[in-house]
Amino acid sequence: MNGLEVSRLKKRYGDVTVVDDLSFHVGPGEIFGLIGPNGAGKSTTMMMIIGLLQPEGGTISFDGERFNPQNLDMRSRLGIVPQELAIYPELTTIQNLRFFGGLNGIRGNRLKERVDYVLDLIGLRQNADHTPSTFSGGMSRRLNFGIALIHEPRFVVLDEPTVGIDPQSRSSLLDAVRQLGRDGVGVLYASHYMDEIEAVCDRVGIMDRGKLLQIGTLDQLLDRSRIDLCVTVASLPPELRTELESIAEVLTEPDGTSRILVRETLEAQKQGNSVHLRRVLELLERTQTPLLGIKTQETSLETLFLRLTGRTLRD
Amino acid sequence: MEFWEITVKDLRLILKDRGALYTLLALPVVFIAILGVSTGQLITTHDAAKLVKIGVIDEDQSEISEHVYRDLGAIGGLQVSKIENRNEAKLRLQDGRSSVVVILGKDFSSRVDDLNLSDIFDTEHGKLSAGLAAIDMQVESSAAFVGVAELVQYVVLSAVLRVVAPEVAKRNALLSRILSRMIEQHQEELEARGVEEPRPVPVKPGASIIYQTLVPAFMVMFAFFLVNIMASSFINERKLGTLKRLQVSRVTPVQLMFGKTVPFLIVSIAQSLLLFSSGKLMFGMSWGTYPLMLLPVILTTSLSATGLGLLLATIVRTESQVTSYSTFLVIVLAGISGCYMPRDWLPDLMKNVSLGTPHAWALIAYQELLTHEHPNMLIVGQCCCILAAFGVVCFLVGCVRFRKYEYSR
Questions:
Q1: What is the C-alpha to C-alpha distance for residues B25 and B275, in angstroms, rounded to an integer?
Q2: What is the mean predicted confidence (pLDDT) over B100-123?
Q3: Looking at beta carbons, which residues of chain B come within 8 Å of A51?
Q4: B385: which residues sit within 8 A by CB, 6+ positions away?
């Protein structure tokens, strides 16, 4: 199979299993988003994919070939954009690009062509001879991204590539990521920004506690868990609340009001079989509970993510 | 040749890091220069500052005391000047204007008159057995010259005897005639040969031997300053996240280590050459009989320093660890090995202990080449081999550690 194939990957630190039986596939030209709360195992997974951590079980393959970190040719198919700014602040943009190009065996005219291509892609041509110490956060992030592409990798791993940058640089970077996909480069994109994942990823995997909780295209994930209706009521008697919680999610707001989130699948809604919604409305009518508002709520990746991983704070 | 990319990059970074450059290149030169200035060897460059400053109080004010004063001034290595009285002498000894003071007392000439020929020829049993005091002379020295005061006494006594002996001899009628005849004959011979009577020429003291030891000692110590900068370079790569990029590139762990070692090796060699050049220009130190043989010692010393630096880089994880470990390596090992003082001053136990440090082997090799007219090349070769082996072993252990802890944990 072409692209990246991760199969039954496992990793433990002492007694703690940080990656547990993880499997997914990223095809050529596909942008795969990996999201999860802190400590979900994303970074460990990425470190194993780039060969800096040894898995305790499972396999990683590129284009059908089992990944061997000692194989330099295989290594040069990979590009990484670490979360930190992995650039030399004292070297100029062009020196940074040339250095990492040379390090990956690119020389002469090819290096010159690649440097020109990347400078245009990341929009730093005017700053080619400037050092990153004079750059804004966004410019440094773009260089950090560009370095990963200098040797024309077939697969790129991006770890939070847009942390702390302005909307313009972010938009430019996301465009560049889409361009990678169009050029046939497979991308593994990890981020906490759900809107970015929604904007650029073809498929998404939601990870927590080392396991992949959900995987699929955005439409598949969102359809499965669509929240159809949000009913706001003044207050709920305890017995009614218990009854409602068996068919919907009930949230108490700081001002004392309650929100009843009624979920229906897209399929049920289309067929007019909104069983849960009918039941909620019947209960509220029977107990004469005053309605403060009622609205349909748009389903988002963030609400899905929070529902799957919970609202408890993670360290 | 991917390692070369890392070497060029690190050389660029070192050249841009003025602080590191100053520590590696300028600081040792400045350090030795300050040392030179503080010991009075740099500004005047040569003779005057190297002379022992002797003040003479002539309380006797006789012809013979004046003769002794002139004769002392003709001795090489001494800078002789007159002092008015004993109070001034005390001040001059305290503030260092004089290292030693010679006092010719009021009775000097009368005591000389009392001397017999037997006192001159039998100094062990005659009046001079009491030393200079017998002819009303005293020698006082400053605290820094207490150790050489006795030596100066002998020098002064010999100068006095040179002046006094002919005078005493003249008092014997027979000896006086013989002496006069000998002097006349000598003058006639010189005139017949057309040669002027040779005047006594003060012996110019050569370059102080201390710099033959001092310059290489501090050079070795500063060569090991590299361990700090090397380890910091690794910490910086980790901190920036660039180490991760280097690791996933087409560079093997050994190439990566090699690429990061070579620039510091180049800097270390440049540092040593600069220090030897400065030593020659500023202190007039000699490069020994075989200057070219210094090159393998410089190379292998640098190799051992960079090897140690690389090993340290694979051990430390934080800047404060770099500081504490490298301070130990630089200061303590330099102290153990004899960088702060000539190795000959070390007790035998310390000399043996010091052989566990690369510094000691470098110092032995330099000492052999710089302070022996015919150095034993076997010793130099042995030192070079040990230094090279130390560097290579550190490099290999560093590579193993780096691979184990940074790759595929």
A1: 8
A2: 84
A3: 247-248, 407-408
A4: B300
By Cβ distance, the residue of A86, A102, A103 closest to B241 is A86
Residue of A88, A107, A140 to mutate when probing chain B, most B C-beta within 10 A: A88
Asked if residues B14 and B21 have their Cβ atoms less than 8 Å apart, the reply is yes
pLDDT, tens digit, 9 for 90 and up, residues B296-337: 999 999 999 999 999 999 998 888 898 888 888 888 888 888
Residue A27 confidence class, pLDDT cut points 50, 70, 90: very high
> What is the token pair recorded at A153?
């990798």
Indicate the residue of A75, A83, A89 with minimum beta-carbon distance to B248: A75
Length of chain B: 409
CA angle (A307, A309, A313) in 5-degree steps: 110
* A154 has a pLDDT exceeding 90: yes
Alpha helix (H) ranges present in B224-332?
Answer: 226-240, 242-247, 253-283, 294-315, 319-327
Max CA separation in chain B (angstroms):
103
Which carries the bigger pLDDT value, residue B16 or residue A273? B16
Q: Is A148 exposed, middle or buried (0-12, 13-18, 19+ CB in 10 A)?
A: buried
* A contacts of B2 (beta carbons < 8 Å): 102-103, 105
Task: Tell me which residue in A73, A76, A103 faces B5 most closely, judged by beta carbons.
Answer: A103
**Subunit contact B244:A86, Cβ cutoff 8 A:** yes
Determine the pLDDT at residue B212. Answer: 72
The answer to whether B215 touches B275, Cβ cutoff 8 Å, is yes
- Cβ of A69 within 8 Å of Cβ of B246? The answer is no
Helix, strand, coil abundance in chain B, percent, nearest 5: 70, 5, 20
pLDDT of residue A298: 65
| A311 pLDDT tier (thresholds 50, 70, 90) | low
A87 touches chain B (CB under 8 A): yes
Residue with tokens 């003044």: A234
Neighbouring CB atoms inside 10 A of B311's CB total 23
Tell me the average pLDDT across B19-29.
80
* Largest distance between two CA atoms of chain A: 80
Give tens-digit pLDDT for B178-208: 778 887 888 888 788 765 554 544 434 444 5
Question: Most B CBs within 10 Å: which of A103, A152, A159, as the mutation test of the B interface?
Answer: A103
Contact A104 B247 (CB under 8 A): no
The whole-angstrom separation of Cα A47 and Cα B299 is 39
Q: Which of A93, A25, A90, A15 is nearest to A60 (CA)?
A: A25
What are B's interface residues with A at a Cβ cutoff of 8 A?
2, 5-6, 9, 12-13, 16-17, 240-242, 244-252, 406-409
